[in-house]
């Protein structure tokens, strides 16, 4: 009876999976182009899940959230600060919590939970108790892993040590009940059921399974066996492909915050919201935005964008000097922007203010051009004066050192003469 139920569920999942892939394929074929190097995609996933009873579904969803949180940390926090260092910006470093150890606990090739689950599922007599025990033995002392009795909820503390485990995720600790992990991880389809699908009288159903077997395979009295096919491995591979695609895109993030636990409008629980923001790394992001420069553009891009507004003699400036003159001319505060090696960085909202000034009426642009020209003349005059003063200081320093050398020589000669002739004076 249990085998029949498992076979029925596997058939339903296979039909659903192939139908879903077919719908996606049909939608993609409706696009007017087959391939494109540029696209706009929207990724909407289930948020972090935590219930009284957490099983394999919640484990996979939270594993996905861990991977996406790591991508968020890399793209928004880590890469941003690496760019500041590369460009030579003196911005205070913002620290954030790295969740790589939690991801390794789940997907490590040696002792990861998914690997141990697959190994247990292949055993002739697999049990969730043995699987749970293996998880603790192979990952003994891991900070992210704990016994169910460590949970702050009474309902989870009642779970036996070999019936579940607790993982400290980035969003909080979750206690998983492993009783159904092995069954839910098995996505096998019985060979005779697969043959039934291949020989179905429904043409649409047959088209969903393109890798047909010969009809004789269905009719011959072959040994029927249920091959193991891991849901966890499929999920891991699909997730890694998704992460690879995301890393090749310019991603923007929308964070959804649950305002309250009662599902009521206009109700905000401050403590809960703050906890969600801290767990999601938003506090670190806000600190980085306050300390850093979220808007940036290349010198050359600004030069191409606004060089047309200036006369030819001013437009011949090198891009960096051009940007310096432009920002001084429009009266931007030096705290609102910062020059790097190849880019100029702006405080939040300041680039929009600058662009609005540059898009103003011609009369204002004429005044702006005169300011740019005046700034260039003044700046060059200041540089000339500074160079002259520096040369004068250098000359004075050389003269001072020459006089100092003479004084040192006189003092040394006097000391040597005193040392040589002193015995003669002592005998007198």
From TrEMBL:
CDD domains: CBD_MYO6-like
InterPro entries found in the cross-reference section: Kinesin_motor_dom_sf, MYO6_lever, Myosin_head_motor_dom-like, P-loop_NTPase
Pfam families tied to this protein: MYO6_lever, Myosin_head
Gene Ontology, cellular component aspect: endocytic vesicle; myosin complex; plasma membrane
Keywords: Actin-binding, ATP-binding, Motor protein, Myosin, Nucleotide-binding
Any single biological process term in GO: actin filament-based movement
Region entry Actin-binding, spans: 239-261
Alphabetized GO MF terms: actin filament binding; ATP binding; microfilament motor activity
Family to which this protein belongs: Belongs to the TRAFAC class myosin-kinesin ATPase superfamily. Myosin family.
PANTHER family: MYOSIN, UNCONVENTIONAL MYOSIN-VI
Protein name per its UniProtKB record: Unconventional myosin-VI isoform X2
Record lineage: Eukaryota, Metazoa, Cnidaria, Anthozoa, Octocorallia
